[in-house]
Amino acid sequence: MATRQQLNPPPLRKITDFKSKLTGGGTRSNLFEVVLSFPDIAPADVNTLDKARFLVKSAALPASSVTPLEVSFRGRTLKLAGDRTFESWTIGVINDTDFAIRSAFEKWMNAINRVSDNTGATDRAAYQADAFVYQLNRDGTTLRAYHFYDIFPTNISNIPLDYDTDSIQNFTVEMQVLWWEAVKGTSPAAGGEDIN
Fold this sequence. Notes:
Elements: H1 15-21, E1 32-36, H2 46-55, E2 56-58, E3 65-73, E4 76-85, E5 89-94, H3 100-112, H4 124-127, E6 129-136, E7 142-156, E8 170-176, E9 179-184, E10 193-194
Antiparallel strand pairs: 1-6, 2-5, 3-4, 5-8, 6-7, 7-8, 7-9, 9-10
């Protein structure tokens, strides 16, 4: 019969040990850039795409999930690995006075399903596009890139209007993702090392 391994207390850890393990001083959440593209049925001009690189003020590196499959057997549950699932992806956008980014997303959603008559694109290739998130280092290099495939917007948030508010408008866009890939150190298009 196998015996349980005895647990020995861990050695004393010092702040200098911690410092030596924190490569590069840690990654900063505010050092990132989002690069969007829009489908041909709702193209965005170069100026809007360039603006988005500055005005997308929040995003997220994607979660990674495998759905468990549970099989019951005599009062016990056997857990098996199921399929990968990909959560929706949300970005936060600063709204400026030309509404360029919001208008581009509204046109995209309208091309998918028109507000006037409930018609729209049915070909996936026509209404989906790709996006990228670059996690940047403090020296401006790219630590990691994420390529989101076949995204499309499913929700553009409202923008509250209020006499008592004195701030620049923001809104969020929730998008569905077919899948994503992570690439170390550079963009996927530039042939970075695939780390999936």
